[in-house]
Amino acid sequence: MKVAIDMGATTGSAPATLDLEELLATRLLVQGNSGSGKSHLLRRLLEQSAPWVQQCIVDPEGDFVTLADKFGHVVVDATRTEAELTRIAGRIRQHRVSVVLNLEGLDVEQQMRAAAAFLGGMFDADRDFWYPVLVVVDEAQLFAPSVAGEVSDEARKLSLGAMTNLMCRGRKRGLAGVIATQRLAKLAKNVAAEASNFLMGRTFLDIDMARAADLLGMEKRQAEQFRDLARGHFVALGPAISRRPMPVTIGAVETSARSTSPKLTPFEAPVDAADLIFTASPEEIVRPVVRRPAPPPPPSTNELLAQVARARPEVEAAPQSLFPEIDEAERESQIDAIMVELLGDPDASFRTVAVLYQDFLVRCRIRRVPGEPPALPAFKRKLAVARVAPDTETAQSDGWQTALSLSETLSDDVQGVFLVLAQAALTNAPCPSDATLARLYGTHSASRARRLLTWFEERGLLVVRLDFRNNRVVAFPDLNAETAAGDPNGPDTMVDERGAAE
């Protein structure tokens, strides 16, 4: 059955149609800089094909959720576990429901993991449910990057593998990939190369123009025309559209995105601008500046039943120690001394926890520390606290105990950074530099340290501000304390102080 989708008009106002059945077999790639009309094109395609084929939209910005009101798409909020998203994707294929996977509000790595789980669930559906599905992925360069970015390798591999399966192997499973990207140079070549239909919009960089011209079979001198394309104007090529490059103007749409391009309005600065900026209102003084994160989704019924049904193992009696019995306090002091010695190595911050744990176990055997050594989770906790090593007065304060309780809610790799910041706030010490925080985080990247501060702030644990000298101050609402101003671009002072002390 041939279904012609009206995408707009070509030169001379002739209708520009797209063969939907051919598109399902040959896939589509859309490229254009921000503001070129990519989202408008995708919305036109989705609206025109909604009555004919099941649709799934991977939406990183939440722009396509408005399709639900007009065409009955179900919005799937991605703030769920990866297992839940995989199971939902399987049921979507089973019941043939058009959906929008809303990734808005998640950071890039979380978006990649959620999209990978969702696409994987659709790809792994039972053979009986391999019905045709139009899978639209907006901002595809986020999910199939050409080079490794600042996200973890695991998240990148999961997302890239899911996108590769969609574009390379999805046709036999009824999955027709439609991917849109701002830059072809940022999109993995093995993903882009599987598309046989192209709609190329406005772009300015030479590398992107050259690659677009190459995909369309145009000469290099013709690539300059991509700079002159207006918003909503594209050059189309492919078996589902045209056998020769053809200019297309995308038609109007029935729904609109929640986010729109900014419009200029008359601007008139207030007369008392300085007072408005530098004078706090009574409401601001009373109200704390804390951004609380959204509450996590409640566990599903299946997860609760599994937790209740899980049998609790019987506690085995501790084996008798082969070493002479000593006081527990003395044993803890020996372990603390080993931790201090372990962290005395300047390279300890850049060694993995597994390597440090093995070194710790060897040192415990050498010094014949009695009893079972701490397990890996307990070691990680001791490692985080030992990296801070507060003085006796700070360690016994209520604020430090509160900081320890707050750190227990964090993952093991960031507890040490949080405790160092908390100690600086309780002692009114200068805020550690990016270099110091990066070393404590186990990296040489200052940008990762800054993102970690943003991550803490988004969870309402602390508030970061800059003074008039661009020095950083970190405040802890729960501790009622804040650090002194510190230069974020300064050296790693903790290493310098240790070296001076030695």
Automatic annotation (TrEMBL):
Domain AAA+ ATPase residues, every copy? 24-300
Extract the ranges annotated as region (Disordered). Answer: 481-502
Which GO MF term does the entry hold, naming one? ATP binding
Q: Which PANTHER family match?
A: HELICASE MJ1565-RELATED
Pfam families per record: DUF87
| Keywords from the UniProt entry | ATP-binding, Nucleotide-binding
| UniProt key word Nucleotide-binding | yes
Q: Know the name of this protein?
A: ATP-binding protein
Query: Which range is the signal sequence, renumbered to this chain?
Result: none
